[in-house]
Amino acid sequence: MVDFTLTEEQQNLREMAHDFAVKEIRPVAWDYDREGTWPQDIIEKAWEVGLMNSHIPLEYGGPGAGFLDGCLIEEELAWGCSGIQTSLACNGLASTPVMLGGSEELKREYLGRLIEAPLLASFCLTEPDAGSDVSGMRTTAERRGDRYVINGSKCFITNGGYANWYTVFAKTDKDAGHRGISAFVVPRDAGVVVDKKEDKLGQRASNTATVSFTDVEIPAGNLLGAENEGFKLAMMTLDRTRPGVAAMAVGVARAAFEFATNYSRERVQFGVPIAMHQAVQFMIADMATDIEAARLLTWKSAVMLDQGQRNTLISAHAKRFAADAAMKVATDAIQVYGGYGFIKEFPVEKLFRDAKIMQLYEGTSQIQRLVIARETLLPRHAQESQTVAV
Ligand SMILES: Cc1cc2nc3c(=O)[nH]c(=O)nc-3n(C[C@H](O)[C@H](O)[C@H](O)COP(=O)(O)OP(=O)(O)OC[C@H]3O[C@@H](n4cnc5c(N)ncnc54)[C@H](O)[C@@H]3O)c2cc1C
After folding, report:
1. Ligand 1: which residue has its CA nearest to atom 7?
2. Which side of the chain, N or C, has fewer Cβ within a 10 Å radius?
3. What is the pLDDT of residues 65-75, one digit of tens each?
4. Which residues form ligand 1's pocket by a CB distance below 6 Å?
């Protein structure tokens, strides 16, 4: 039987996240966006009430929530502000490789840090010359005795300026393309340098930074999984985090849809509210359909993970569809507002700017289509020699 009913616990979780978004995020979201304010106060409050680190298992002190539970939180908080939510959610991205490949000692230490205090972690994959194609990364990790020495630079790192520790992907075999990448946990105090904070189009309250590593030494035990298996870890991580990004896209779309719907009831042209004009109604109807469809795909991709199934195809469907839907809904929300939609005093232009990133980070919409095409055209066993990066 297929049942889309949330349990009472999930309904309560969703309500709690929504209340938090209403009381703590919405009142400051547009100001924080304008000024690019770092939301430290909101991070501390969200951590306090348990809206961060939901994915960390009970055995490491976390709430051990499921992937669908995580998506419920992500949609509501992103409805409040997806920039702030990107910063709140990033620990999930950084700590998934640790949960997948870390030793018991590493998990206790680094997952424990996130539970004991409102600390942040970052996921460092992208480099200036290695975005969608991470096989071209230049950061290296050289084994010297019982240590690795890391050299290189990573760009566009969410929370990079504030993280306590970093999951870093680096080449351990320079000539082996994606098969020469390994993943490591690097504590900030090992010598990570934050070079630059980006000034962004949208999600301006989130921190996006360039970080660099010059002869940064870490214990050999900070290797995640086996040497040269970092690419696989990165891909497995993204399978697990794309449902959350899709949920955030649904949250942004829902916010834009609600503003547009309310505005269409109030704005009068040709003697009637513009909601009475069929052309406007059809935009609203398409927004509503896109949001419903995006949420269904998102939930399916999360439920598959909760059931222990491989979700590569469905999570790519969900992320691609929800991201494109958010962009379209936010664009049409501006259309419903007419000229006012273009003006910063009105709320939807922020959502339009925020929506754009959904089509870019954690694999662009083009890369999601590559994944979908590969999963559709090639049977699983024939994929061993394929490389599709984030
Ligand atoms: C705000 C923000 C936060 C981010 N956070 C993080 C983070 O925390 N950690 C991290 O590691 N990275 C992060 N990123 C990086 C992000 O994941 C990359 O920007 C993204 O993967 C795309 O890489 P790129 O920017 O180098 O674009 P490119 O790979 O250069 O792509 C440029 C264009 O070419 C297209 N393209 C590339 N290859 C193909 C292909 N084979 N087929 C079809 N089209 C293709 C792309 O879709 C895109 O349209 C973040 C980026 C931003 C902007």
Report:
1. 157
2. N
3. 999 999 999 99
4. 122-126, 131-132, 156-158, 200, 203, 208, 357, 360-364, 366-367, 370, 390
Q: How confident is the model at residue 388 (pLDDT cuts 50, 70, 90)?
A: very low
3-state SS track over the chain: CCCCCCCHHHHHHHHHHHHHHHHHHHHHHHHHHHHCCCCHHHHHHHHHHCCCCCCCCHHHCCCCCCHHHHHHHHHHHHHHCHHHHHHHHHHHHHHHHHHHHCCHHHHHHHHHHHHHCCCCEEEECCECCECCCHHHCCCEEEEECCEEEEEEEEEEEECCCCCCEEEEEEECCCCCHHHHEEEEEEEHHHCCEEEEECCCCCCCCCCEEEEEEEEEEEEHHHEECCCCCHHHHHHHHHHHHHHHHHHHHHHHHHHHHHHHHHHHHHCEECCEEHHHCHHHHHHHHHHHHHHHHHHHHHHHHHHHHHCCCCCHHHHHHHHHHHHHHHHHHHHHHHHHHHHHHHCCCCCHHHHHHHHHHHCCCCCCHHHHHHHHHHHHHCCHHHHCCCCCCC
Q: Is 258 a catalytic residue?
A: no
Closest residue by CA, ligand 1 atom 6: 157
Point out the catalytic residue in the list 116, 362, 375, 384: 362
Closest ligand 1 atom, CA of 206?
A: 1
Query: How many angstroms does the Cα of residue 129 sit away from the middle of ligand 1?
Result: 10
